[in-house]
Amino acid sequence: MLRSRDEAVKVALVAAVAVILVWSIVSAVHHADSLSVTDLELLGGFALWMTLGSLLDVRLPGAGVVVAPASIAVALALAMVVTWPSLGPLEQVTSYRVGFGNGVILLTIAVGLLVGGVLSRLVGVVRVRWPVRCAILISAAVTAIVFDAVPHRGTYTWQSMLIMLACAAAPGLLWLLVLLLTARPNQAASVLAETVFVQVPVGAACISSAVAIAFGTSALGVLAAPLVAFPLVLMRFAIHQQERQRTTRRQTVAALARLTEVAGYNRAGHSRQVAQLCRLVGVRLGLGPRQLSVLEDAALLHDIGQVSLDRPIPDGATTEAAPLDQRAIAEAGAGIVRRTGRMESVATLLDDQATPYHMEVIEGAQIPIGSRIIKVCNAYVDHLAGDPGRHSLAMERLYLGLGYEYDPEVIDALMAELGGEVHRH
């Protein structure tokens, strides 16, 4: 179902872009006689900035989404340009109203996106995928249509600015609606949260830059784009710095995760297997990218507390340990992670991984969903004992603790992910 939805969205994108391109070409041919040399120079300048802006695409930390802030800002700005400056000596510069239609502007944006995509591919930098480029063109079209439909002639500057902000934000709201409609039913809340906390700040920067570029074009022409969009370049460097910190964190997690295996506290590959299973279950339960990242890190480190034991548990199977020992291992692991000073969210999941599910039902304890997932997946892998043929036995052991030790919803998700039917006893 999800794949069919994704395919439907891609088909819709292609269809929308095809309509826009056909209409833009027809409109450009119709307005060809009204294009002056100055118009062509300014349009070419904007296309150039969009092409170069494709080299500034950046991957957002945590979400893993690649965005094109510079290209988005220039495209939205061009869709709202009302007046061009006349080129010439500074004292003779005046502005005049754009005399051609939106088709010429959208065709310019399409050319800039296409050439920029080819250039970024040749250079080998991080680049947005083609559906995102299609979405940028569609966003520019929506902005241009809405901007033309709103009466803004003769308004004050602050009123025009508010109109531009609303028009530039319109495609963003439309895109958010598409994301919510194509998400799994149980992922809508996480998609909304991830969008608000990860993509909205970048989107807001793009929208404000677009409005400033559109206003500045009447005086500065194409120079408005690089001057106003320069903070977006600085934002890209800040995001890269944040990504380097995440890389350091992942390396720290990987090193700590191997510690228990190298020291002989559990089987080789155990932590990785638990982490992979936790991620699959987390996706099925509707966790967002950030939650999944924290969950995977916590799953990799779920046995790190075993290094505090005087004697290793046979095969590292913490499910065979006494409840008090499980609690001590969880607290020790959380303490080790907290001493890194950067992974409090991971430590929280480790701290509660040994808490039985009935504590939440009966006593109202707040057990994070990540901790409940780790508890179930770790128990399943422990009961497998490295033998896939023990799947039925492992599930039977889990069902013995259903509702008391383990969260029934997590067990259902695990069973569904493993391709079996859910049979509660």
Report on the architecture of this protein.
- It is built from 16 helices and four strands.
- It is mainly alpha-helical and 425 residues long.
- The protein has two domains: 2-229; 263-417, Orthogonal Bundle (Hypothetical protein af1432), CATH 1.10.3210.10.
- The strands form two sheets. The protein has a two-stranded antiparallel sheet. Strands 3-4 form a two-stranded antiparallel sheet.
- The longest helix is centred in the middle third of the chain and has 39 residues, at 224-262.
- The protein is elongated and about 85 Å long.
- The two termini are 29 Å apart.
- The model is unreliable at 88-96 and 421-425 (pLDDT under 50).
On the 0 to 100 scale, the average pLDDT is 81
What portion of the residues fall into strands of 2 or more residues? under 5%
Tally the helices: what do you get? Answer: 16
Give a quick account of the main beta sheet: strands, pairing sense, barrel closure.
2 strands, antiparallel
**Cα gyration radius (Å):** 27 Å
Principal-axis shape equals elongated
What is the percent of helical residues?
55-70%
Kindly state the number of beta strands. Answer: 4
Structural class: mainly alpha
For the biggest β-sheet, the strand order reads 1-2
In whole angstroms, how far apart are the ends? 29 Å
